[in-house]
Amino acid sequence: MAGLSKETPLPTEIKLHKQSKILDVTFSDGKTFHFTCEFLRVHSPSAAVQGHSPEQGVLQTGKKEINIEHIKPVGNYAIQLDFSDGHNTGLYSWDLLYNYGIHQDKMWQRYLQKIKEADASRDPK
Description:
Blueprint: E1 11-17, E2 22-27, E3 32-36, H1 37-42, H2 47-50, E4 68-74, E5 78-83, E6 91-93, H3 94-117
Antiparallel strand pairs: 1-2, 2-3, 4-5, 5-6
């Protein structure tokens, strides 16, 4: 896992909205990113999702209704998310969350394209 770069803004607030399944992360540079729980789950930095190389990534399906049950701080550099499907591996570092926030739209469109190509569904079975 890449360390925290000195340039990365730090979170000033992390707020989970359980009803709407949105995690808001506000950074010290004033940017606020709104992540759906589904987005964070399907882009989990864990080896179970990402694999050990880009070719080994595992397409996550059926996660549309996913929620975050708990948020655990990890040192001063990351959080660990416990999802309602039991997934809780993968550390979301400040660098990673900021990067996800900046590239969220492209990442989401790429995910939707992969779902379509795999003839899979975001809906739970």
